[in-house]
Amino acid sequence: MTVDEIVLCPSCGTKNRISSGKSGVAKCGRCGNVLTPTFHETKERSGQSRRPRSVAISEIMQIVLAAEPFTRVDYGSVVSIVGTSLFFGVAVAIILQATRRRRNWARNWLGGLAVLALLFPVYLFVTGGADYIFLRATVGIVLNFIAVALLFTPSADKWFPQMDEDRRG
Fold this sequence. Notes:
Layout: E1 4-8, E2 15-19, H1 53-66, H2 78-99, H3 104-117, H4 119-127, H5 131-149, H6 154-159
Helix pairs in contact: 1-2, 1-5, 2-3, 3-5, 4-5
């Protein structure tokens, strides 16, 4: 009995089905790149992904936090609605690149932004920002930092392809 594995091509991101009982070298059906399945690229027959729980929790937290500006949008202004929607769309696209497509560049980009965002509460404190704004911003930034930190746990590190395997990331 052969077991099928789904392997993502590291160069083009195409999903390829490989049978473990098949002899020879497996190549990507789109770009012809040689594929080497690893434990984190294998899917069970039931279709369940082996994505770490920390990555799934991070995805949910980040998308909820990215939607927060909709609580402050001026619904009477088309520019405000479109701008907030564009911000949300770009943020979710980058989050999903990291949490679903396993792109290291997206994970590192989110990590860099989270570290830079930690400077904002310091700026508000130094400039004497309003207490409510300071508290709200600090809570959101700390929660986002925790969500992004979940992408760098040991189980997530094993799930993300290594830099030499992922030419784009």
